[in-house]
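Possible regression after last week's pipeline update?

I re-ran a chain I had predicted before the update to compare outputs. Posting the input and the new output here so someone can diff against the archived version. Not blocking, just want to make sure nothing changed silently.
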Amino acid sequence: MLTQYEQESFFDKDRINYDSYGKLKHPNLAEQLRPYIVDCSRQIDARDTAINIAEVCKVGELQDELVNLALNSSESITLRVSAASAIASIGDEQARVN
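New output (post-update):
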């Protein structure tokens, strides 16, 4: 799905699939999502979707990456807000303080 976003052949602007993202949870999900969250050269919609998947699937292993993204003023405000929302939802106390 993220590859399709990068190729601009799939869009979910209205977040219709948001509630279904929980079905994507598996033990290696953090490793699949991490490149989309940290790599600013990736397509913005793919990155935003990766953040949303991390939030819905409660992938706590990505909280440091999400904090860094939320605090990075050179990133898109859309991504920063999504990352901050994910941290508010799934981050531990230390991550939320940052």
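Follow-up from reviewer: compared with the archived run. The two ends are 31 Å apart (CA to CA). Marking as no regression found.
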